């Protein structure tokens, strides 16, 4: 997988003002070598994080939590 390439195909040329020290730290932490790669990684991880939160919210709203033990389910039924 090449992190520097957009996962969604194509791309949009965009100008962003990122503080030099933040970009340098992101490059150092990830081991990536290009601004494009580190920005694509950051955007992908942001989207993934929000999708995970949305999925957890949907799970919490379910009547039956698939992650509950049988004992926990029995306790819920008594309520």
From TrEMBL:
Species whose genome carries this gene: Nocardia camponoti
Name of the protein in its database record: Type II toxin-antitoxin system VapB family antitoxin
């Amino acid at each position: 997988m090449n992190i520097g390439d957009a996962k969604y195909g194509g791309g949009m040329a965009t100008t962003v003002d990122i503080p030099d020290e933040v970009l340098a730290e992101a490059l150092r932490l990830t081991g990536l070598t290009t601004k494009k790669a580190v920005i694509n990684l950051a955007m992908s991880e942001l989207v993934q994080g929000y999708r995970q939160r949305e999925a957890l919210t949907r799970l919490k709203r379910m009547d039956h939590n698939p992650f509950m033990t049988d004992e926990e389910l029995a306790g819920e039924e008594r309520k």
